[in-house]
Amino acid sequence: MAITLHPDDERLLIRIDGALNIMEIGAAHDQIVLGLATAGGPIEVDLAGVTELDTAGLQLLLALARAPGAVTLAGPSAEVARRLDQFGLRRQLNLREDDHGA
């Protein structure tokens, strides 16, 4: 799993690539918290590169959706979309779906 932070004048883009699961959640959490703490404006989390998502990863996404400030979850991969539908969480996350997502 890799998390990259891409700040620009408009927003902070956080891109997640690879598995977002119990084995990776600690590192993912730490990097995302750093991004949230340093962002000066809106945050977008790009989920197009997520290849595996378990309940620990879902919990992190739910926490992000409830974070104070403007956090948008965007471009879910097919795996993210499948898991959100499986657990009925698509609405709770207020997901923005892009062309490359599901």
User: Roughly how many Å is the radius of gyration?
Assistant: 12 Å
What's the end-to-end separation, in Å? 20 Å
SSE class: alpha/beta
Q: Kindly state the percentage of residues in helix.
A: 25-40%
Count helical runs.
4
The strand count comes to 4
**Poorly predicted runs:** none
Provide an overview of this structure.
The chain is α/β, with parallel strands linked by helices and 102 residues long. Helices cover 38% and strands 29% of the residues. It contains four helices and four strands, in the order E-E-H-E-H-E-H-H. The chain has helices at 25-38, 55-65, 78-87, 90-93; strands at 2-7, 12-20, 43-53, 71-74. It has a four-stranded mixed β-sheet, with helices on both faces. It is globular and about 35 Å long. The mean pLDDT is 87.
Summarize the structure.
With 102 residues, this protein is α/β, with parallel strands linked by helices. It has helices at 25-38, 55-65, 78-87, 90-93; strands at residues 2-7, 12-20, 43-53, 71-74. It contains four helices and four strands.
Structural key phrases:
four-stranded mixed sheet, single chain, alpha/beta, 102 residues, globular
